[in-house]
Amino acid sequence: MSSILLVTSSPRGDESLSSKVAIDLANTLSAKGNGTSVIHRDLGANPIPHLDTVTTSAIRKPAEARNAEEAAAAEYSDKLVDELMAADTVVIATGLINFNIYSTLKSWIDNVARAGLTFRYTENGPIGLASGKKVYVVLSSGGVYSEGPAVGMNHAVPYLKTVLGFMGMTDIEVIYVEGVAFGPEAAQKAIAAAQARSEELALAA
Ligand SMILES: Cc1cc2nc3c(=O)[nH]c(=O)nc-3n(C[C@H](O)[C@H](O)[C@H](O)COP(=O)(O)O)c2cc1C
């Protein structure tokens, strides 16, 4: 059965706009696929620790060379990789935080971008192993970055496209929930526009 991996990263719980739009999208996609299962990795509620000495060492050596502490760290990272590899569809939600993604999401990426598992090096350069997935990125931001003078200050979308593409995920749609700092009315409009875009994309899926 097909499955959806929903990765939300805001620490703001029910107040999070990126999570709200992404959860709705995942549910709509799931309903459309007759109950396709949704695995929700809520990084805001359960943050992934930043890379440390043990994890960086563990994920770069073969299983048989790891000590007990490294084995536990690698197992955790492996589980995140397995969740990603098992998904046909990935929905990722983040706010624009100081022009980039929530650091919780960065930690998730640092755990799933694994040589030999989600990408590998060849004589002709790196190739992504997590291909064939449809990815939706929901980005919420105080300002407007999809068009206009601030486009170049949005480092979240180019970064995500680069790192996801490196792992083989190149079919990426971005849903903006933007201009939410311009007052409650603007925020409502931004949510409505993002939901309309989500519906459109879900219909086309
Ligand atoms: C620490 C912090 C940094 C932020 N940096 C930016 C930023 O660089 N640009 C921007 O437009 N909005 C910025 N914002 C506003 C958030 O992008 C906005 O509140 C968004 O809705 C957060 O996502 P969430 O609702 O899913 O938590 C920032 C908010 C916080 C709390």
Average pLDDT confidence is 96
Strand order, sheet with most strands: 2-1-3-6-7
Number of DSSP helical runs: 6
Classified by CATH, the class is: Alpha Beta
The topology string of helices and strands comes to: EHEHHEHEEEHEH
| Major beta-sheet overview | 5 strands, parallel
Shape, per Cα inertia axes: globular
Q: Per CATH, what is the topology?
A: Rossmann fold
Gyration radius from CA atoms, angstroms: 17 Å
Q: Whole-Å distance between the termini?
A: 16 Å
CATH superfamily: Flavodoxin domain
Task: Describe the structure using short key phrases.
single chain; 205 residues; alpha/beta; Rossmann fold; 5-stranded parallel β-sheet; binds flavin mononucleotide
How would you describe this structure to a colleague?
Helix content is 40%, strand content 21%. The chain contains six helices and seven strands; from the N terminus they run E-H-E-H-H-E-H-E-E-E-H-E-H. A five-stranded parallel sheet has the order 2-1-3-6-7, sandwiched between helices. The chain has a two-stranded antiparallel sheet with strand order 4-5. Helix 1 runs parallel beside helix 6. The protein binds flavin mononucleotide (FMN). Flavin mononucleotide (FMN) binds next to helix 1 and strand 6.
